[in-house]
Amino acid sequence: MEKESVLSRMGVSVKEFFVGEDSIFRRFGRAVKKAVLSVVHGSLAVKLSCLFMGMGQMMRKQVVKGIVYLLLEIGFILFMVFFGGKYIGHLFSGSLGTKASGEVWNEELGVYEAVKGDNSFLILLYGVVSLIVLIMFITVWVMNIRGNLENDRALAEGRKLATFKQDCNTFINKKFYVPLLIPPLLGLLVFTIMPLVFMILIAFTNYDFEHTPPGQLFTWVGFANFGQLFSVGGGSGFFLVFLRVLLWTFIWAFFATFSNYFFGMIIALMINRKGIKLKKLWRTLFVVVIAVPQFVTLLLMQKILDGDGILNVILGTNIRWLADTANGSIIPRVMIILVNMWIGIPYTLLMCSGILMNIPAEQYEAARLDGANAWQLFFKITLPYMLHVTGPYLITQFVGNINNFNVIWLLTGGGPVDNINYGGGSQAQSTDLLVTWLYRLTTDTNPRYNIASVIGIVIFIICAVLSLITYNRSGATKNEEVYQ
Amino acid sequence: MKAQTFKEKLLGQRTRTAVTDGFIYVILAVLGILWILPIVFMLYTSLRVTPETGIITKLFPDDLQLGFGNYVRLFQDSLFLRWFGNTLLVAVCSCAITTLFILMVSYAFSRMRFKMRKPLMNVMLVLGMFPGFMSMIAVYFILKAVGLTNSLFALILVYSCGAALSYYVCKGFFDTLPRSLEEAAILDGASQWTVFWRVTLPLSKPIIVYTVLTSFIAPWCDFIFVNTIINDAEKYTVALGLYRMINAEKNSFSENFTVFCAGATIVGAIISAFFLSMQRYYVEGVTGGAVK
């Protein structure tokens, strides 16, 4: 019932966003119209600065500001002429390079000469860089015109224009957020946004082991990769493999999250119980596991559980704990979840002990007086309280587990390879999560970057939907100011 | 008569509590041993000198010898000391930048109000959900284009530049700080700059320590990014060095397992010391983010 209303509300708002009276296009249109009109009616300074950034400011004796703008424009033009323009052109020309490298017969010397062709990879990468520079420049350009319009208004109202010093001063007061945000955002732009845009674009190309620069070219293929991942057809579609990996990803994320949560809580309750001594010792025993880096504990566990590992020596058995393929690789799958409990429960324990102590003791006493037993206390008081307080944490954990690369990769490496073959060349193995499958597709000897990118987009959509729903429903975003 | 039944009841309850307590002690002891056993095994393996170095066929062989031979081998035969220095350098630098970035972003989002605030917060939340190594190859080529592959500086950049995405725990903390102090400082003529450094940061010790702790530990644990960016053994970090030690070649495991355990013990000891000394702040950070 409620779910439906949430969904339908989402649908309505999406529709309004695109087609309604206040749709994004109409709002954009209005804004452009307003901007053009204000420039047309603006002073000479405004008009000049549309062409020569900073001219308007210089005319009004804001010399330093004007020079900065002018230098930015010159820099941008030089960048586009000598570097960016070419790549943006390539990006929109419909192909990523036309000349493959190869050997060409040289008549004069009578030898084959290696000819360097176009490198599709670099064309795409530099194209993305140039596009981002272009967008940044347009932002600065708009800022520059806005500043001039603002100056127009100030002069009309008889106010004095801000001096350079005053401008600088607003950056540590009213606009302090600008210097605070710019360095981190620049970092994000270069090392997160740019690579992401690039990889998303890869999803629409045929960049795989048969099209690997610099030797070969790759080019745009539209939605063909999505088609391959979501179709069964002719043995080349990966849909069945995808479903299998997706299903296991969800099973894993579910068990990994809730096993850690409940067992961690139960252990925390046991340690916190009145009358249990040596609380600190018990807690430390578990917490030590956190303190040893995960890759160490995981590699150690991998070697302990190995076919030749110490566990088999101790038990006198000969079970391949992480490599048995019987019954859909059930043994490795269970072992992974168990090892994950060993790693994860201490975190829950650490988090829960603090929160458990916050539960008002009167509630327990009142319930006990009414004759409630231990189970009832747990299910009627402790659990609802914990779920209420740690709801968002659980979702974060769930999303974290969907992306939990380390546990799977270091324990089984996604393996073992079972004899179920759902599609040629998918390279997925029996304990692969979507992320480890993605990783294998990019690092294998026959890489398929295009399919890997599509999988990345799918993972993103799953995680984004899950997280946005929780974040918008949890108090953290709504009641920012409650605790102040 | 009545008093007696009450006494009996009380007695019954006490024995029941004692039984439950005993039961819990047993469970805790068993679980505690289970949890600590692999780590004891690691310590023990790191100390075994003979007869085997890798595949262990017997837990207590007859000719068992214990000693620090593996530690000596670790420092003499491998570049462990070098890797250790690299990791320390990367960890200190990236931890400083990361902490500063996170504090800056959190302060801006928590304390200042501006037009792009909500959209920016949402965009950053969404960006954080792309799997990190989806873009790893692109990062590698960007670094290559500016000639930075195979350098520790690149590693520092990569670790600290994505940091701003995990602002929300810290922002949650800032949201709970009372505003009255800042308002008083601003009335007295302080700029936002002064408020940030002199008022807010001194009040934020727990979250600063939490951020420092998590960002310092990260380079000790990551080996995937290092694996892509760096392929010169001189520039490995501890994690990649140790990983390679037992996974590089087919028989490297059987040759190096005991040495690996020695290295792992050293890294583990350092992180543990670091972690246990700041455990209190870690809990505050985690729960601080979770409670709201």
What do you see in this structure?
Chain A is mainly alpha-helical. Chain A is built from 20 helices and 2 strands. In chain A, strands 1-2 form a two-stranded antiparallel ribbon. In chain A, strand 1 and strand 2 (111-115) form a beta hairpin. Chain A is globular and about 85 Å long. The model of chain A is unreliable at 1-5 (pLDDT under 50). With 292 residues, chain B is mostly helical. Chain B has a domain at 90-291: MetI-like fold, CATH 1.10.3720. Helices cover 75% and strands 2% of the residues of chain B. Chain B has 14 helices and 2 strands; from the N terminus they run αββααααααααααααα. Chain B has helices at 2-47, 69-77, 80-111, 117-127, 136-145, 152-161, 168-176, 180-187, 192-203, 205-221, 224-229, 238-247, 252-277, 279-291; strands at 48-50, 65-66. In chain B, strands 1-2 form a two-stranded antiparallel sheet. In chain B, helix 1 packs across helix 13, helix 3 (80-111) crosses helix 7 and helix 10 (205-221) crosses helix 14. The termini of chain B are far apart. In chain B, 40% of the residues are buried. At the A-B interface, helix 6, helix 8, helix 10, helix 11 and helix 12 of A face helix 1, helix 3, helix 4, helix 5 and helix 6 of B.
Tally of distinct domains of chain A:
2
Q: Any idea of the CATH class of the largest domain in chain A?
A: Mainly Alpha
Shape of chain B: flat
Q: Which strand-content bin applies to the residues of chain B?
A: under 5%
Number of helices of chain B: 14
Strand order of the main beta sheet of chain A, please?
1-2
Multimeric state? heterodimer
Under CATH, the topology of the largest domain in chain A can be stated as MetI-like fold
Q: In percent, how much strand structure appears in the residues of chain A?
A: under 5%
**What series of H and E elements makes up the topology of chain B?**
HEEHHHHHHHHHHHHH
